[in-house]
Fold these 3 entries.
Entry 1:
Amino acid sequence: MAQVEKRVPGTERIQTVEMRGITKRFPGVLANDKVDFDVRAGEVHALLGENGAGKSTLMKILYGMYAPDEGEILINDTHVEIHSPTDAIQYGIGMIHQHFMLVETLTVTENVALGLPSSRGLLTDLDAVSKRIRELAQVYGLQVDPNAYIWQLAVGQRQRVEIIKALYRGADLLILDEPTAVLTPQEVDEFFATIRQMVAEGHAIIFISHKLHEVLAISQRVTVLRDGKRVASRETAGCTKADLARMMVGREIRVMPEKPPAQVGDVMLELRQVQAQSDLGTAGLKGVSLQVYAGEILGLAGVSGNGQRELAQVVCGLRPITSGRVLLKNEDVTGMLPGELTKRMLAYIPEERMKDAMIQQFTVCENIILRDHNKPPYAQRGFLRHNIIGEYTDKLIQYFKVKTPSRDTQARHLSGGNIQKVVLARELSRQPRVLVAAQPTRGLDIGATEYVHNRLIEERQKGTAILLISEDLDEILALSDRIAVIYEGKIMGVVNRQEATAEQLGLLMAGVKEELTPA
Amino acid sequence: MIEDLFSTTVLVGILASGIRLATPYLYAAIGETFGQRSGVLNLGVDGQMLLGAFAAFYVALTYQNLWLGILAAIIVGGLMGLAMAYVTVNLQAQQGISGIGFYLFGLGMSDLLFQKLLGTVETVRGFPSLYIPFLSDIPFLGDIFFRQNILVYLAYLLVPLAWFVMNKTTLGLKIRAVGENPEAADSLGVSVARVRYFSIILGGMLSGVAGASMSIALLNVFQQNMTSGLGFIAVALVYFGGWRPGGVLLGALLFSMVNALQLWIQVKGIQIPSDFAVMMPYVLTILVLVLAVQRVRPPSALTKPFERES
Ligand SMILES: Nc1ncnc2c1ncn2[C@@H]1O[C@H](COP(=O)(O)OP(=O)(O)OP(=O)(O)O)[C@@H](O)[C@H]1O
Ligand SMILES: [Mg+2]
């Protein structure tokens, strides 16, 4: 089997890793400001902070992707220089990125073997590698088919491949950047079992998450960053959610928003027996019927991959319908293009915001007017009016509290949470009558989540019909007036919020149907 | 006249020359496959071929040694590849445009050298036909397959070899990964630059040999622009072949068979205007590309320069 030669000074394995006084500047941003951070073998150290606090940056420095402007790194009390991921790997550091680093057209085994010396010299030793993958999978509960291609795998499985990749390279320290953001609750449980196993075997883990209950459940220590500075570092035992939230945001956070009673109006959005294909060409939606009324939030609950994505795309004109009808305020809009739907005041906050909601190389300004770039006041006789666009953008940046060096910063340089705020600003400022929000708070810190929740409720008060698609059951329960559950492309049932319980919804999400009082 | 077309001798003749004519396409397109699988589109193939063709011809003529000619073509093609690699990998130039630049350079330079060093069209005694014992005596098949020159045989051997390198070696794995997702490969310590350099230089060397196969094995002359765009067809064949050596072989054969037929029609003076005959392979390329394009996805990072953030 291929093994990476380790250059850890002193001992064989990583006992401690220490980052001292790390400072990193980007144009216009101080991403890390003299941060101290350390992690030991056999513990999970959680890293908390709002969007843009500098968590990913700090970890990328440890993994050799960014060079720090100041500060030093010590492994087992010896100073080390980490200039590239290769160096990091050789020291026994592995990182699982917020955005996966997998080659989709290669198999699991090929992805793991990539870049490693082979026991057969110039030839690949894929059989040996896949045997070792099975062993690792066995020990750590990371079930995945070594011969599957990455493009065939669901998100949760891809993540297992990333972990296997790191373990295979003999990683003693694993950096996990928001690993649970894309997992279903069941997958999170399995994932935590894997982490506990790794810790028991003497691995060190750095765990980044915005979900405070996860941090409390899995970590022994927690460090909080705010605006690039370390503001706290302590034992997790004895901390409460409220403590953590206060340290992160510097103020009290109401975890669940307050909601005035709904003022329900007419049907604004209606789906009648809609069928559509999934990306793989299989049946994605198998006859979905739904109604969303003005002034209500209809929550669509379900385990990921049961047709939520297809449903959102169908409503927004991004996916063809094979049969059935879609109506916007009693008008048949089946088969209309997104542009025509935009004119009818439909707004969409897509799940894959990096890909579907933004043009990464465009500035914040340009992204803000993406939908209305050809209309006055932003354009006149075919020319963009930059002053007006700029002022408008500044207003939204302020109103939506987007953290960006300037309105002319490219979207790809913003942190995940702030990208989401830009999308939100664009879509909500258009005064929509129907809003489709898919996973609107995924990857957002608690402050931003609270903010988005409040904005959605505000929209509801204005009489907007909101279809909220979320895999986070707590979010669904907190915001919805009615809850629909989707399973394998079919609606299992629709219940009023007051009558819904988490247990009952959980059963429906798993495809178990009981007698329900229709709402 | 028309019945002539279908007599067995004629058919054997057309098939044999079809097999032979595929040679330069195979070298050039297999080389280009490596480059494209690593994410670099090299449109300078034709220029590399022309310089390779001239280098091989000149060295073979001067030193009366054909293998020395091949070596010269490999070196010249490799140097062209090195330059292309520097421009696209280090300077991150737009690949299509710089490829065209290299094509024009090769076209002009080969002609200049030809004028200065030779001046007139001369001929060499190219690689002779190599009869494979026993096999060459099989009726029909022997004539078609086993009475070719050594460069033809090597071209066909290159196909399984390229497949093997691409799919069974660690190097091939790296090439495929770098062409699909250079960020991922980089994060695992694979040097994107080194892999691309290797692939482009290898492509250049094979293009050089492709040129040599024309000037000292098939035609045994050197003329200005003797490839007449063959290198561009080779690039098209890579798309047609779905970036797989086997597919490239299929495309090269299809193309060269039509070419052989077309040549024969011209020789026979059959009643089709010769311009139409000459057009046939090119029209076919366009048709086939239009039909083939949906089938396979190109490497995701094709034509995209890679730069690590810092
Ligand atoms: N490559 C870059 N160029 C310019 N600015 C950057 C770059 N990477 C990050 N930043 C900025 O540095 C700050 C810290 O970003 P970082 O990605 O570390 O935040 P984070 O804590 O991981 O946030 P999130 O929870 O949203 O992922 C942000 O303001 C971001 O805009
Ligand atoms: Mg981050």
Entry 2:
Amino acid sequence: MTQTFDILVIGAGPAGVAAATAAAEGGLRVGVVDDNPSTGGQIWRRGAASPAAARRWMEQFESAAITRLMGWQVIDCLRLGPDGGVLRAEGNTPGGEAADLHFRRLILATGARERFLPFPGWTLPNVMGAGGLDAMVRGGLPIEAKRVVVAGTGPLLLAVAAHLKERGAQVMAICEQASPAQMAPLGWALLRQPSKLRQGMGYRWTTRKTPYLTRCWPLAALAESSVGESDGQNSQPRLRSVRLQREGRQWTVECDYLACGFHLIPNTELAALLGCAMRDGFIVTDEQMQTSMPGVWCAGEPTSIGGVECSLLEGQIAGLAAAGKTGAALALSKRRAGMQAFVEALERACRLDPRLRDLAAEETIVCRCEDVRMAALRGRSDGRDAKLHTRCGMGPCQGRICGGATEFLFGWRAGQVRPPLYPALVSSLMEEEAAGSVAGGAEYAVSEGIENV
Amino acid sequence: MTGHADVIVIGAGIVGSACARACAAQGLKTLVLDAAGVGGGATAAGMGHIVVMDDSPAQLALTRRSQQLWEGISAELPADVEFERRGTLWVAVDEEEMHEVRRKQAVYAAAGVRTEVLDARAVAGAEPELRPGLAGALLAPADAVLYPPAAAAWLLQQAVSLGAERLGPQRVAAAARGEVRMEDGSKLCARWIVNACGVGATQLLPELPIRKRRGHLVITDRYPGFVHHQLVELGYLKSAHAVADESAAFNVQPRQTGQILIGSSREFGAEDTEINRSLLAAMLRRAEIYLPRIGRLRAIRAWTGFRAATPDKLPLIGPWPEDGSLMLATGHEGLGITTSLATGELVAAEITGIRPGIAAEPYLPARFLNGSPAASEQLLFGEAAYD
Ligand SMILES: Cc1cc2nc3c(=O)[nH]c(=O)nc-3n(C[C@H](O)[C@H](O)[C@H](O)COP(=O)(O)OP(=O)(O)OC[C@H]3O[C@@H](n4cnc5c(N)ncnc54)[C@H](O)[C@@H]3O)c2cc1C
Ligand SMILES: Cc1cc2nc3c(=O)[nH]c(=O)nc-3n(C[C@H](O)[C@H](O)[C@H](O)COP(=O)(O)OP(=O)(O)OC[C@H]3O[C@@H](n4cnc5c(N)ncnc54)[C@H](O)[C@@H]3O)c2cc1C
């Protein structure tokens, strides 16, 4: 399959939705690709409990003339030049069809993923990502009357705890690794963003009976000592409790789920493959959200972790700029500058306590794909050496999960990004680029609407 | 570390590691250094097929000797080397290639290598995923598969336990007349310097007739039992010979992990490690001709590596006539994992004066000094040399 767009947006989270909507206003051919079957990204997916603002955005997006390619994963960039390029995507269907998506301009809105840190027991069933558990509950996982401990760092913990509480869960504790002093600037920044502040206070009101413990983290997730014979079906150990630590004190809390999230890691793999310049792990953009690669814009988490409002604004800027509406884009980018204080405060609040490096025991698994344990990783000179000699990061996730941990534990940086970006059918890599018309073809009558930027 | 060593091995790829082990085993005071970790160069990119090849009598002798040496240490190899005697199936598509199968069998037999000719039925039985209608195959049961970086690390660790010393990551800026100068300016001296820098050898000795020949590989997720042997098309030889441009051949290997490693391509003139999409696609389509269902497997990573190619397709092993302290161990093209062990043996024998297991002459670098190196390179790399 081949499809041709004036503007192609990767990711249908808030940033992508805003970008596509803004770009589509001028009648350009806009497409949005997301590997998830539904739109909305990590936060708006499945619609439930969306704030009014989200609904407004989604309505505009749904009613705009935008081609939505949901359930398609971008696996490679076949070509990129100043006049456009071609991405290859694979459908999440059993048949695994491949499609070549031709574009003149590209907007990356690939979002972020949670950072996991290894500690004894973190690989037990029912120990999961905070956002991950949240999404599963939205997807129908029964959580009523279940005991949940939420641990990690960042505002996400509070949001997840509040949502689980609303769904009837018994949230036993919210463990925030940061210190109150570290989080203070975030409070100040929030005062300048009333909507965020109201949202945060709402979360706290919902979870008011749950202890919110700063400088607190899980030491270990503990398994059921004997496996219930009555269910007789599996011998896999189950989560029973979590051992927590705060200052000098340690105690154990019984629970059914442990939801962990040690902040977010931007999804920059596609941008890296395209050759976009990065700084400190984030994509560098100009004030109109254009990356170092001409014709490629980036919005949302890959540029900085700043929450939904920031992502929406960046999405709009990128969408307008890519559509050639420079004036409108520049006008909005002034507002973005005002959000920087929040971004910086959030970064500071979520900085990980170095003592978290000591959580993993020698036998704790760090790389789940390949079962690589902590002991095997100690003393390796760098990430590549560790990968070659221990298989850490060699599995299907290509270090997307363990990379966030090894970066924090050892300071290792991710290696070279290569196609396929995600595990892909061999057949999807077999085909020559499907013919399409990129720059300057007669088919591009509609594209004349794009002014030169 | 200061003082005077007998041997400094530059490069801790599989070849340098094997040289260090062989030298240390002879009681030579040996130092090993590398710009990075052990086995991070071409050794980290190679397939790890331990294979006897009969491109020329010299190649047959070197690969055969090496395979015997691998066989000899196979029981000692730790689990992470993933040594498995998978055997090679040289797949023949038609009668013409069956002719080649029988010729190959005769050559191997003369060298003492046992092989078995499989007819169409037997091939289908041995590898049910191969497409129907193949003519047959030659099975070389003693060929093996291993994980090269772990093999290099083990060889180096053996060297260290035999008394060799490994120095921290250091890039060598110059090596001549018994002196090795690091990029940071520090120096080391030795009676012998072994240049085992793979394709990097020319940085220290620009006149070496070595060119980079890029290759692509793709690894899949785990599909235990999809194939059982290393599967290679007989046309592979045509690809290995085609020096002029890009080529891709069917070369598929089962890993101990259950993963399938798909190769391989050959390409001159490429300097970066990027993926050449159309060559990768051609390589995978080639594999699909033989394994029609390979397209349904999931690929998790693709990468490239550089082979150090010489004009006559034989490595450079032995003294460099222009400098009495320099010993070369490079130019192994697509066979350095296999031939590392015999290379180590030849280098140690040259240094100590003992008799090596095979004749050293065909691999001596002096063979390129009869005329001007540039001239021979022109002649031998050029299309004229292609037969
Ligand atoms: C689990 C989780 C929960 C969060 N909860 C909150 C919250 O309650 N409040 C808050 O303020 N912020 C929250 N955030 C942060 C919030 O999501 C972001 O601020 C905002 O959603 C950023 O939007 P985005 O579009 O950049 O990213 P996302 O919403 O993550 O969307 C990116 C989309 O792109 C897709 N994608 C990525 N790469 C590819 C590819 N190669 N091919 C195809 N598709 C691709 C992803 O599947 C995803 O759907 C949360 C973040 C996460 C990860
Ligand atoms: C795609 C592909 C498939 C292959 N498949 C096979 C196969 O199946 N079987 C087989 O036998 N062979 C195979 N090969 C060939 C094999 O990988 C190589 O021949 C072999 O790895 C060469 O080893 P080496 O030690 O000479 O080089 P390298 O592994 O490259 O080691 C050289 C070392 O020298 C170091 N170095 C370089 N310059 C300096 C300097 N100035 N200072 C300090 N250190 C330096 C480097 O860091 C490096 O570690 C394959 C190769 C490729 C590319």
Entry 3:
Amino acid sequence: MQGKRQARDMAMPSSLLWAVDIFGRVYTLSTVGQYWELCKDTQLEFKRVSAVKQCCWGIACDHQVYTYVFSGDVPIRYQEETYENQRWNPVGGFCEKLLPSDRWQWSDVSGLKHQQLDSFTLPSPHWEWESDWYVDENIGGEPTEKGGWTYAIDFPSTYTKDKKWNSCVRRRRWIRYRRYKSRDIWAKIVSRDDPDQLPDPFNDISVGGWEITDEPLGRLSVWAVSLQGRVWYRENVCHHNPEGSMWSLITTPGEVVQISCGPYDLLWATLWEGQAIVREGIDRNNPQGISWSTVESPSSENGIMHVSVGVDVVWCVTKDRKVWFRRGVNSHNPCGTSWIEMVGEMMMVTVGLNNQVWGISCDDRAIYFRQGVTPSELSGKTWKAIVSGRESDRSQTGSSTSLLSAGCFFTDDIQNQTNAIIQGDADTSSDTELPSVPVNLANTPPLGAAASSGGNSTGHQAAEVCTNLTVDPLDCHQGEATVASTSNEKADLEMQKSRNPNPSAELQWTNIDLKEAQKQPVLSISTFAETSSLSSLGMFSVGAEEQYGADEHPLWAWVSGGGCLVDLHSPLKWFTVPSGLSSSVQSLSLSITPAQTAAWRKQIFQQLSERTKRELENFRHYEQAIEQSVWVKTGTLQWWRNWKPHKWMDVRVTLEQFTGSDGMRDSILFIYYMYHEEKKYIHVFLNEVTIIVEVLNEAKHSFALYTPEKTKQRWPIRLAAATEQEMHDWLSLLNMSCCESRRIQGPPSHHAIWSVTCKGDIFVSEPSPELEAGPLLMPCDQMFWRQVGGHLRLIECNNRGIVWGIGYDHTAWVYTGGYGGGFIQGLASSADNIYMQSDVKCIYIYENQRWNPVTGYSSRGLPTDRYMWSDASGLQECTKINTKPPSPQWSWVSDWYIDFNTSGGTDREGWQYAADFPASYHGHKTMKDFVRRRRWARKCKIVTNGPWLEVPPVTLWDISIIPSSDADDEEAVALWAISDKGDVLCRLGVTQQNPAGTSWLHVGTDQPFISISIGAFYQVWAIARDGSAFYRGSVSPKKPAGDCWYHIPSPQKQKLKQVSVGRTSVFVLDKNGNLWYRQGITPSYPQGSTWDHVSNNIRKMSVGPLDQVWVIADKVQGSHSLSCGTVCHRTDVQPMEPKGLSWDYGIGGGWEHITVRGNTTEASRVAMHDTSEESLAVSKDLEDEESKGKTEHSKTPLMVSDSQELDRNTVNC
Amino acid sequence: MTDDKDVLRDVWFGRIPTCFTLYQDEVTEREAEPYYLLLPRISYLTLVTDKVKKHFQKVMRQEEVSEIWFEYEGTPLKWHYPIGLLFDLHASNTALPWSITVHFKNFPEKDLLHCHSKDVIEAHFMACIKEADALKHKSQVINEMQKKDHKQLWMGLQNDKFEQFWAINRKLMEYPPEDSGFRYIPFRIYQATTERPFIQKLFRPIASGGELHTLGDLLKDVCPSAITPEASGARLQTTEPQHICAAEVSVKATRSTNFLSDAGSL
């Protein structure tokens, strides 16, 4: 159970709450953690921090601004580019000599800006060059000649890669990457601005605005307030420019003391005089906003001291420490309507993600979390204290032996050491020694518990003691007062012993922490003193008289929740004091490993089996005491009747289950209906059902049931239930019955074929050996698919049982080995390995307008026009109000917003223009345009469960896992991926035991990529965003990332979108749905020679380790209807015929993705006996590939007849 | 890996081959053939012996038939103990099939409860379930269930429907992740040698020190005689030494083993 819980923690994506204590030390508290952890970079003390998910900005005690960018496996890199221009002259050919009217010899792309290679310098000390300048040999997805020159008639012109008779000028592009290196440390923001314009020292900072627009990637609004009360905006802060470029002064109506910027367009600041000012006019085109308006303080005597804003909430603290909530705040009315007083007195409050709120109490300087903040109750319910200790405190709960090595850093001053330890001990035991501050932390463990067994973290604890000591200089002299107390005498004794450093204890201590501990003494009290004097509001003034002696409960000065995501589904462990007892339970239960559990569970099972054998073996012919009768479930459902006019009609449904003597069951589903006053029924044998799939439909809770026959017809049996629960009961029961009748249970095998529908539902099918080869090929409409819980956009696997998926929100997930989940409850679901999973996707609607001479564009269309609010096709009316999430499982998590990322581009307000409605749209208005539309998006979220664990933090676009040979289990499995930003990544440490792997290795590219595939022999192919294909050279187990990219020309100027590499075959898919086979690949020439067209109408494809080809095809004709998104299997794929001959149609439509990369199940040799020639060919190995290449070449003349048959082979429309 | 489910299944489908013979003094019209049946360990005698009753009634005069009861080697068999418990308690050393004598007269009022209908068995069964849940969850789970869930549990047992039963019983065997186990482990220890019908005590799954209790700990605590090698009286199947270490009490599978069959904690 404990182990399971641990795993669940891992599964839950964590985020951080940032806080600064009164000594300026920065701590973070994870949403899955229990302890405050000291920020990795402890060089500086801070007075303010403002965090978002990817970074944290802060003002240190030197009044400088710093940014702390989290490290990650993917580097932050920026491509610098410049163009070298040349003109042809009859004497010297192309040369650097240009005409006087020409551009510079070195210029930007437009030619207007002179930029030589050496004019590029690093923007700040936080950057480094990745390599030297090199020439880009790629123009629009096409490789250029060596040297990278592109040719044109004259300069402002279109360039081609081919030199023609009239090419008078040429240019080539030089590129160089620089990389941001200051990650996981506080990087000082170096100001290169004009000294006169330089801001005075800073006093407050706030980061937000990332929801305003996602362009450029990672854009942030960074606002700062200087000591003189002026407001500054940091320009151009985004992912590849984490420091921003310069400060711009924003004029304000008065002197500002504090500022708060929400995730979206809300920005409030407080004035010295006690009013708040609200920024108006912040939007995508103007993230700085336009003007200020003023909001008065809730009370006339006490002005506003502090304000914090979220997406659509504002909280403030007035000078009398009262907390207020602003009512009626939203994007259209950023000022809100009125103040409501809240319970509690706070120093400050911070609003984080999801509008969650934290505050620092005046009483005890503890951080409180506002509980019960929900979209419907934004003000929440109660304040709850976060009692998490610091990691340093935790160490003190250990045994006294842990103090052994404490002396190793401070051999010169024993008195101080003693104090430090006393404080440490006392700190977990009591807070009551804070005389001026009433303490309300109740359940602190007794000293005895604190001093219980600590065990193996000896070294760690010791060093933490040192940290405490050195960072709390003021505590030292306070400590003397408490030395006398009896409980400390023991510690004193211990300390005497501890003067001999314990080397073994030290060994356990990690390097980083050691460094930290040693660093501390360097920062002396002087910096701290500065801190306290500077802060007017944020810092606790630590007067000499003030006694807080042995109290070690953290006293906080500042907290920032801007990067902290707390939602209903994440249980927090912040509110209980981790006692010695519970930690020992934890460690104990952790000591029972899953392996042990499995061992004795197996033993029980064996003994039970033995008992059964003993008691039953000779008596199996006895009659059973309880007759296994027919078991029947009946109910009333609706059925989509199969005669015209098609409509839903009420039917009675009966599922009859017959149990055989072996305990196995077969079932028949009866559907009773009335036809012209006549009672009729249809029945389905569940052992013939191939799939039961939920049809998400806002109007009906319906599902479809397919048999091979129904698949051929493209006309399933559709049933609907009155409630979601009822439907899930039926689905669960029918699924279980189907699995039972097919004797399928437990997790899918390593060879399983996985697929995903366009609704994100996951299905898995066990391949039979006859699926890929044999005299009698199994038609793929007979494959049985069962559902697995979870929600994914794509899924990839290999034949070692390693399965990864990517959600619609690009989150990466790894398969846990479980089964069931989702609606599949009870016994059809594994008890372990099922975790919560969530996904977010966008729902889009279109606002359509027509131009008329009187009013211009308006929402009044022609009578023949589409709805003014519609879906993409225009056929369905979709208004903001009537559009609902796809199913009750989904809930909205944002408001409607204009989507600017529509293909074709948009203008500044998101509009796209066209001549008339069903047309292609463009992002600017022309004379010929009479209609326009814009896309609105709204995010919705599903929370479900399934056998998936998140692989944070990099979000992904594509994955490929190598189909491995019979490697041993320990060997690392090559897994390549494309991040959603287009970075190519290589996962390290992926093994069968640890399918999630350990870390990402970034593989540099000159442009973003969209698709990747790794074949059986480490052939890595990839597709770039510009549609070009690349081959990665020299990838091997020893060199997992390979060495360089080879640009492969695309087929006939098609833009490619997907690649899949099987054992030896390479297939690509272009953006027009054509499937191509790479001809001429040999081990010595793995890039191949030419592309052969195979089929059209393909949406997605997967080439397996047997070189089998499976696709998702569109426009598949069935006997009753047409289907889009249909699983199809290429038949007659053989070593001599790698492209196969025709398509076999399987389940669909509505399928989105399939992977057959786990299926290495070949037909048995016996089955292939009579086709000995083939079996010979199949059994050939890599060394035969050379000859295979030859045979393919020798077959080239046949190409003509192949292409003649092309139409017959394609998926029919 | 062995799944919990495999264990549950084996426990559920545990069967005891039984031979029913009519008591010699019963008056019959013709000779009564013995009747052979596979009895489910987890069920109750009177619940699964309709066939037996019918079989012997055929050879008896109607007026000779009164309430049926069973006896093994002179011991009347309590119908309200699970069959597996009865077998392990009284007959585990016997050669199979288990030979049970069927009586229709001289109901031993002192030893046995009357069982006039299946409702009585149902009432008894539900009372056991409720008692167990009172120990496990302060009755919270059972009380939150609907009437039809209770019915499904019972019907599952009555009709030998493993899935049907476990679809509901699963809820009774869960505990919130923040708790590390049940409040108390529901168990009863039956011994053939003592007069005491059974031993029952409050027993927490986790020791005060935080470590998880094992079945061995439980026995040491409540029935030390059972784990000394000399003590042969205790009819707990799980007293084989290797089994004790296997039976970490915190694990559902094991607990359900105890819960449903071996110790007959119902």
